Amino acid sequence: MTFYAAVGAVEQGLVYGIMAIGVYLTFRILDFPDLTVDGSLPLGAAISAVAITAGLNPYLSLLLALLGGVLAGMVTAILNTRFKILHLLASILTMIALYSVNIRIMAGPNIALLGVATVFDPVVRLGVPPHYAGLAVFALFAGLVLAGIVWFLGTELGQVVLATGDNPQMVRSLGVDTRTIVVLGVGLSNGLVALSGALVAQNQGAADVGMGIGTIIAGLASVIIGETLFGCRTMARAFLAALLGSIVYRLAIAFALSLEIGAFRFNPSDLNLITALLVVAALIAPNLKRRLMER
């Protein structure tokens, strides 16, 4: 694996780490299996791309993308909490609907960002080399998101979100409407995923309706790898582990794709296979470690 391939993998790990933080919020904090993210990531990309091509400030387009993701997540949560549709089915329905919504937003399956301003331009003007601008911007946004989510969960409302995922019956006994809390949490999660998608679109120079395929798998892989390698004893450490897990996941994929054993080498089409092997290894590792310690 070359140096520039490693830098690119770290870039992807940081930007998709924002998505992993959102996935951790639903799957680990709220115990809400949510597949909406496969649709909310391209939703954020579509909103940001259309806004930028219309002449809107690229930073403001990120805010619009985040709000769009929040609304998508709230739809899923409302279908589950208010209309009693199973959370998996509700998220699948929203994900399917978002495919058509994203095409409607972009007026086609994709939209290019050629010759328009992006969030990377101010960083380049500050003197940062263009091939490092993405790394700097993604690190900044990942750090802000990580600090923001840790701060939020430390507030009174954030503590209610944590308690709702841990013991909803106790929270309801205190007179709190857990349905509203779930709507808030799932909305925030998908807002972060959409923000990640908007940053990816500006970095790649295009938004595509199919760019969200496999997002949930990558998010879960990042969360599991992060928990296995870095632990999750505190909230701050758990979310940091999800972010670092995303970086490790992307580096592992880049290494696997560059690996050659005789005439054998992995192809980009083997990405799902590599992901599955990484997740299996991350799940098995703690048990193997415990057995070795017992011996």
**How would you state the average pLDDT, rounded?**
93
The run of helices and strands is: HHHHEHHHHHEHHEEH
Beta strand % = under 5%
Q: Portion of residues in helices?
A: over 70%
SSE inventory with pairings:
Blueprint: H1 3-29, H2 37-53, H3 58-81, H4 87-106, E1 110-112, H5 121-125, H6 130-154, H7 156-166, H8 168-173, H9 178-204, E2 206-208, H10 215-230, H11 235-258, E3 260-261, E4 264-265, H12 271-294
Antiparallel strand pairs: 1-2, 3-4
Can you give me a brief rundown of this structure?
The protein has 295 residues and is mainly alpha-helical. It contains 12 helices and 4 strands; from the N terminus they run ααααβαααααβααββα. The chain has helices at 3-29, 37-53, 58-81, 87-106, 121-125, 130-154, 156-166, 168-173, 178-204, 215-230, 235-258, 271-294, and strands spanning 110-112, 206-208, 260-261, 264-265.
Structure notes:
It is a single chain. With 295 residues, the protein is mainly alpha-helical. It has one domain (3-294): ABC transporter involved in vitamin B12 uptake, BtuC. 77% of the residues lie in helices and 3% in strands. It contains 12 helices and 4 strands, in the order ααααβαααααβααββα. It has helices spanning 3-29, 37-53, 58-81, 87-106, 121-125, 130-154, 156-166, 168-173, 178-204, 215-230, 235-258, 271-294, and strands spanning 110-112, 206-208, 260-261, 264-265. The strands form 2 sheets. A two-stranded antiparallel ribbon has the order 1-2. The protein is globular, with a radius of gyration of 19 Å. The mean pLDDT is 93.
